[in-house]
Amino acid sequence: MRRNLIVLLMALATPVAAQQPPKLEPIPEPPPMPASDPAMDPEVRILKRGEDTVQEYRIRGKLYMLKVTPPHGVPYYLIDNEGNGVMTRQDVLPTLAVPMWVIKSW
């Protein structure tokens, strides 16, 4: 009985041992990184207005955010949310800017 069991296990193990590992192909190289457009990089200017330090953030020359740091106080931000040049004050820099696109209207 024991001998039959050993023969049966050997018969089942033979095809598994005879299998060849699959032939693997090398991974292709990743595509090169796109060139950085210097016009899309944000430009930061630091100005002194009175005693306040003002940092202007621009992309393609368009002002989109100001960070005003008073000498004795907490910095606050003036942000152009809609792109129309009207700055609104925000005391804390938002961590999430929700897209405001119109998907469908009636």
Description:
By secondary structure, the protein is of the alpha+beta class. 16% of the residues lie in helices and 28% in strands. The protein has one helix at residues 2-18; strands at 43-49, 52-59, 62-69, 76-79, 88-90. The termini are far apart. Residues 1-18 form the signal peptide. This is DUF2782 domain-containing protein. Pfam families: DUF2782 (PF11191).
Features:
106 residues, alpha+beta, S-adenosyl-L-methionine-dependent methyltransferases, five-stranded antiparallel sheet, 1 helix, elongated
Stretches where pLDDT falls below 50 for ≥5 residues?
none
Counting copies of identical and different chains, the oligomeric state is single chain
What is the radius of gyration computed over CA atoms, rounded to a whole number of angstroms? 32 Å
Largest sheet: 5 strands, antiparallel
One letter per element, helices H and strands E, the order comes to: HEEEEE
Give the CATH topology of the domain at 37-90: S-adenosyl-L-methionine-dependent methyltransferases
Strand % is 25-35%
Shape estimate: elongated
CATH superfamily of the domain at 37-90: Protein of unknown function DUF2782
- SSE class: alpha+beta
CATH class category label of the domain at 37-90: Mainly Beta
Report the end-to-end length measured between terminal Cα atoms.
81 Å
Enumerate how many helices there are, as a single number.
1
Mean pLDDT: 81
Kindly state the percentage of residues in helix. 10-25%
Lateral arrangement of strands in the main beta sheet: 1-2-3-4-5
Care to count the β-strands?
Answer: 5
Indicate the CATH architecture of the domain at 37-90: Single Sheet
Protein name: DUF2782 domain-containing protein
InterPro entries: DUF2782
Keywords: Signal
Signal peptide: 1-18
